[in-house]
Amino acid sequence: MDARSNFPRPIPEFDAQEFWAGCNRGELLMQRCTSCKKFRWLPQPMCPSCNSLESEWVKVSGKGIVYSYTIIAHPVHPAAVSRVPYNVAQVQLDEDPQLILITNLVGVRNEDIRVGMRVQVTFEEHSPGVLLPKFERVSKS
Amino acid sequence: METLKDKTAIVGIGHTEYSRDSRRSEMSLAVEAIRNAVADAGLKPSDIDGIAKFSMDNNDHVFLAANLGIPALRFFAEAPWGGGGGPVGSVLLGAMAVATGMANCVVAFRAMNERSGRGTGRFGLAAVREGAPGARGYLEPYGFFSPAQAVALSARRHMHLYGTKSEHFGAIALACRAHAQTNPNAVMRGRPLTLEDHQTSRMIADPLRLHDCCLETDGGAAVVITSAERARDLRHKPTYIMAGAFGATDRNTQAVVKFLEHPRSESTVVADDLFPRAGIAHKDIDICFLYDHFTPLVLMAFEELGFCKRGEGGPFVSDGKLRWPNGALPFNTSGGNLSEGYIHGMQNTIEAVRQLRGDAINQVKDAEIAFIASGNAVPNTAMIVRR
Ligand SMILES: [Zn+2]
Fold first, then answer.
1. What is the bridge-based pairing of β-strands A63-72 and A86-93?
2. Global pTM value
3. I want to staple B304 with a disulfide (CB 3.0 to 4.6 A). Which of B34, B143, B265, B278 is the partner?
4. How many angstroms away from the CA of B308 is the closest CA of chain A?
5. ipTM value
6. What is the 3-state secondary structure (H, E, C) of B247-298?
7. Distance from CA of A13 to the nearest CA of B (A)
8. Cβ pair B355, B66 in contact under 8 A
9. Contact assignment for B128 to A3 by CB distance below 8 Å
């Protein structure tokens, strides 16, 4: 694939392989300390709270709120040229206020996005074999 | 314990032309800025025995020393994180080397073709690659690349929490632009800015508009640091370094995310250390230089550095507070990164020295003490200097 035609795909590295493998199965996994049970993000080898090196991967609800967002108008990557204006959002997961993911909101018009909006994870294909966690609005019903 | 207080001084300042296309090598920009700074001090390049640079600067210490004709380079170091650690951090590295006897005379500099990309490629453009490793893997697949986009997220959150308006961001842009109008080296001289211009400028990453973003600039800037003792025999009135501080917090694991609700920021860390080390309070500051890469972060820096309360940055920067000559807290008086030229903050230190020498273009009357901070929202460095 021409690198200019799409945004870069994630390259899973040691501390992140479980996360990306989970995404490719359609599961949102978060790293949690087995000792003090604190979640952490990004994936990293040590627990900053208790300095334990042991961790587990826990499937989370995928529910959260829009913490902040931007509508990108100026493309800084060739693949952005045909996509502007597009949204990039921070979603804060219900499990822990420190779990704030960068993502895209899907199925919602840019002008309807609000801080605090309830959202739910969904997985979208980025490229063959790579699923990205994105978020869609939770209907009020 | 011994401290850095008043042991060292900035004794020379120098820069190149600031432009949008230098048509020169980055080494050429570096050596000209350094030669000018050394000459300003009344020294020769061969008097320099230390070089402190930004880690992202493409000029190598050792090749630079060879070009400058430095026979024995005794100190070389670099400060990371560009606009955060670099501009003040490189000066402080030099000051620490001098204070501890590792070197006699250190130059700190930044030189780059940021705008034209001549030679080394344009700085700040998104790399075109198929894979994003490490932390970038959580950002780039979503089309999230630039510092402006990250700042937009913080700005939106600040607006949501505190009712901050785009017009507050505009007040910062307007102050810098007004100051640049008398500065012959300012890239934006001759292009005054109104609030309407700001409010109608094109959107970069909503809510960030074009005039909320610093310039991309080609150029070089350098300062010379030596001991207070030696400084007294040199050409200009010394600018003494009263205190310096480095700071980073544990909120940086997500690289670009700044948690506004986090109790401490990089700026609060440096402010907590800096004022006690200098033995002064915020009210003693006559003039301040904040790293104006993006206007919302300047507003937040005033809060986090303790110049006003958190959430009150918008009102604080309004009503001409930052504008020379009548504002209560003159800020970035040569135009800053937003309007003089984005030499990654080194030009703010140069302007601080001019103000304390008393020969600045927009001279603040009786300026004695200046505060200089590097970038907010990234690992940060700051110092307080006096005449
Ligand atoms: Zn733990």
1. antiparallel
2. 0.95
3. B265
4. 24
5. 0.97
6. ECCCCCCCCCCCCCCCCCCHHHHHHHHHHHHHCCCHHHCCEEECCCCEHHHH
7. 6
8. no
9. yes
